[in-house]
Design brief:
Strand order of the largest sheet: 3-2-5
Largest sheet: 3 strands, antiparallel
Number of strands: 8
Helix content: 40-55%
Number of helices: 8
Radius of gyration: 50 Å
């Protein structure tokens, strides 16, 4: 009797099967709901890998999208420009070692993401950029002398960008900007350049001194010629009109009188020595013939 009562309280096999199916169905429903949607954030794009057909050719833009759980998974790409800084040591055309740093802004071509994933994967930048940048830098730097790299920096940067753009386009990568961040030379070459600059400055200084001396010489000659011409004209004026000398004496007396009058001290001087005795001056004028 007791065993029969226990068997009556135990659930039947059909009930256990129904409960298992309900739990399985509920779990599958939760898994499907959680894995059937994926979000693409701003500045990103997505592609989908299907376990049966492989990478789909569709590129998913920003927003929420549907996929088949377990059979498909989303691969997210950041399509915003990212900086890449590369340092390289290259030889110039005159065999000088040049240390150059290059900063490149790159991004993938959005509609080529399936092809990028098939050929390069998600780490396309680390796979491609170091090699093509190093090769491009060495080929461009070898075309210029060390001095040209300093004076023609903009041209060098433009050549690097042109070649890099062509090389990156082959891998479906876009270059938004290329800039040279630093450009240095070996210690011996830097010392030679500094010595050359000092020598050029000394030469320019010596040239300036010579030019200044020549200008001073010309100025002295012109001044002497002017004084001689002035003396000649004054002599001719005195010869033609003796009253010219008297006029000069009057002008000198007027200047002396103005100076003495402006002084706060009381002065007693000989009027003859100071040309102040104007009453005794000879006011003769040349007689007309």
């Amino acid at each position: 009797m007791a065993s029969a009562g226990i068997r009556g309280k135990m659930p039947s096999p059909n009930a256990l099967g129904g409960l298992g199916r309900a739990l399985l169905l509920g779990g599958a429903t939760i898994y499907g709901a959680a894995n059937s949607l994926f979000n693409v954030e701003g500045g990103h794009r997505a592609i989908v890998f299907n376990r049966l057909s492989g990478i789909k050719d569709t590129v998913y833009e920003e927003g929420t999208h549907i996929m088949i759980p377990w059979f498909e998974r989303a691969i997210i790409y950041d399509v915003r420009a990212r900086p890449n800084v590369i340092q390289s040591t290259s030889g110039s055309r005159d065999l000088q070692m040049v240390n150059i740093g290059l900063r490149v802004l790159t991004r993938p071509v959005p509609n080529k993401l399936p092809e990028i994933y098939r050929t390069l994967g998600t780490d396309y930048g680390e796979r491609v950029l170091p090699s093509i940048i190093q090769e491009t830098l060495k080929s461009v730097i070898a075309q210029y002398n060390a001095s040209q790299l300093l004076t023609m920096r903009e041209v060098v940067s433009r050549d690097i960008r042109r070649i890099l753009t062509q090389r990156a386009h082959f891998f479906n990568i876009v270059l938004d900007d290329v800039s040279i961040t630093n450009l240095t030379f070996s210690r011996d070459y830097t010392a030679a350049v500094e010595s050359k600059q000092v020598a050029q400055q000394d030469a320019e200084r010596a040239k300036f001194v010579v030019d200044k001396a020549e200008q001073d010489k010309q100025s002295a000659i012109i001044r002497a010629q002017g004084e001689a011409q002035s003396a000649k004209l004054i002599g001719q004026a005195i010869q033609n009109n003796p009253a010219f000398l008297t006029l000069r004496k009057i002008e000198a007396a007027r200047d002396i009188a103005s100076t003495i009058a402006g002084s706060q001290n009381r002065v007693f001087l000989n009027s003859d020595s100071l040309l102040l005795n104007l009453a005794e001056m000879d006011m003769q004028t040349p007689k007309t013939k």
